[in-house]
Design a protein that fits this description.
By secondary structure, the protein is of the alpha+beta class. It is built from 4 helices and 5 strands.
């Protein structure tokens, strides 16, 4: 006796290949959670003076910019919120995550009255394919084009 129609889950002779794909989204979310929890102790809590020697997943630069502290924080917060829904902001520190795999990268900035120091480093991996350098290029362009109203004086 043959029956027509789809093979339902749990029926005899079921092809399990379709059922295996059901777990893919759950495994993706579990992997993201695990990776982000494990990367927490690898984050930088304060602004370093330079990138570690021999590092290929870090960028540090200083730009000439005379802006008040509060207005710099406001501009960086705008940049962080415009970037994506996965970026978190606190004054002086931004955690920026890559779009698909959500790899966390630390971005620090400090205002030295006339110059702004920028630092970006990946928490995971030893090579970043120039992601941190590109990010600082973007931040530098954003800050230099931003219409600041205050100075640090």
């Amino acid at each position: 006796m043959s029956t027509s129609g789809p093979n339902l889950a749990g029926s005899a002779g079921e092809d399990m290949s379709a059922a295996k794909w059901q777990w893919l989204p759950a495994m993706y979310v579990a992997g993201l959670l695990l990776m982000n929890i494990m990367s927490i102790p690898l984050g930088y809590s304060e602004m370093p003076d330079e990138c570690p020697e021999g590092s290929y997943n870090c960028d540090y630069r200083t730009i000439a910019l005379d802006v008040g502290e509060e207005e710099l924080h406001d501009a960086m917060e705008e940049w962080a919120h415009d970037r994506s829904f996965t970026t978190t902001f606190s004054p002086g520190h931004i955690v920026d995550r890559t779009l698909v795999f959500q790899f966390p990268d630390d971005v620090h900035y400090s205002n030295d009255c006339g110059t702004v120091d920028l630092f970006s480093k990946s928490r995971l991996g030893s090579y970043d394919y120039e992601v941190n350098s590109d990010r600082l290029d973007e931040i530098q362009e954003y800050l230099l084009e931003y219409d600041f109203e205050t100075t640090c004086q």
